[in-house]
């Protein structure tokens, strides 16, 4: 993901026994979280794209 989006700030943290999640932060302190549990690579990419295109 970071390789394909060099100008987008992406932080990845690895942890054991933790539900995989993605967070998006928007203007004015708005934040949205989506679970990635059980998703394959393509579905994760779709979730991230959806968050990027979301207008809040």
From TrEMBL:
Q: List keywords of the entry alphabetically.
A: Electron transport, Membrane, Mitochondrion, Mitochondrion inner membrane, Respiratory chain, Transport, Ubiquinone
Q: Which InterPro entries match?
A: NADH_Ub_cplx-1_asu_su-2, Ribosomal_mL43/mS25/NADH_DH, Thioredoxin-like_sf
Q: Which superkingdom heads the taxonomic lineage of this protein's source?
A: Eukaryota
Domain named Ribosomal protein/NADH dehydrogenase: which ranges? Answer: 1-55
What exactly does this protein do? Answer: Accessory subunit of the mitochondrial membrane respiratory chain NADH dehydrogenase (Complex I), that is believed not to be involved in catalysis. Complex I functions in the transfer of electrons from NADH to the respiratory chain. The immediate electron acceptor for the enzyme is believed to be ubiquinone.
- Topology class, membrane: Peripheral membrane protein
Name the record gives this protein: NADH-ubiquinone oxidoreductase 10.5 kDa subunit
Kindly report the protein's main subcellular placement as a broad class: mitochondrion
Stated family: Belongs to the complex I NDUFA2 subunit family.
Keyword Phosphoprotein: yes or no? no
Q: Where in the cell is it found?
A: Mitochondrion inner membrane
Among the Pfam families in the record, one is L51_S25_CI-B8
Tell me the lineage of the source organism.
Answer: Eukaryota, Fungi, Dikarya, Ascomycota, Pezizomycotina
Which organism is the protein's source?
Cryomyces minteri
